[in-house]
Amino acid sequence: MKTKNLKDRELVKEFISGNQSSIEILVKRHKDRVFTYILFIVKNEELAEDIFQETFIKVIKSLRRGKYNERGVFVSWVIRIAHNLIIDYFRKSKKMKMYSNDEDPKIDIFNSQRFSGQTIEDDIVQDQIASDIRNLVHELSEEQKQVVLLRHFGEMSFKEIAEQTGVSINTALGRMRYALINLRKLIEKKKLDLTYM
């Protein structure tokens, strides 16, 4: 079986056993999701690139030290590392911002983008939709924004989100529910069209 067809956990084992190309496959496989998550929070592409690179440096070091366990999903683990690095960055730069605002869109807006644009026009439309969604999510309270990002870009379960954020599963579910309600209201208020044909 070719290395690139292996599952994440198998690639992790390969890397730990000394196959350096395995980590490259994992990075390529999850780059878009991890980078998008970081960019949504930091709102700066250059900073997002720096944190993305720092995330995978930490991933590599952690794997080499045997600090990864297979109980969770690999990409969720990577997103948690990225999330912690983002918090560290904001703490260091004293720019940690808190928002107290609830937003709610349909969950479908996170799945409405097609990432196989064939024309420049398709790319422009996709970029605009991504920008609109990013702007909407940034209007959410910090707690709701965090749940949306961890759920849709980190692909974490609500149990994992609850553990990551230090709240109960019901609280995490409630934050998502209110986030979706508020995003829907914002979409209607701003008369946004987040569909891509």
The oligomerization state is: single chain
For the secondary structure, the number of strands is: 0
**CATH architecture descriptor text of the largest domain:** Orthogonal Bundle
Question: For the record, what CATH class of the largest domain applies?
Answer: Mainly Alpha
N-to-C series of helices and strands: HHHHHHHH
CATH superfamily of the largest domain: RNA polymerase sigma factor, region 2, helix turn helix motif
Q: For the report, how would you describe the main beta sheet?
A: none
Instruction: Supply the helix-strand structural class.
Output: mainly alpha
Count of alpha/pi helices: 8
Instruction: Give the low-confidence spans.
Output: 95-118
CA-atom Rg in angstroms? 18 Å
Strand content: under 5%
The general outline is globular
Measured between the Cα atoms of the first and last residue, the distance is: 37 Å
Query: How many domains is the backbone divided into?
Result: 2
CATH topology of the largest domain: Rna Polymerase Sigma Factor, Chain: A
What is the helix fraction of residues, given as a range?
55-70%
Overall mean pLDDT stands at 79
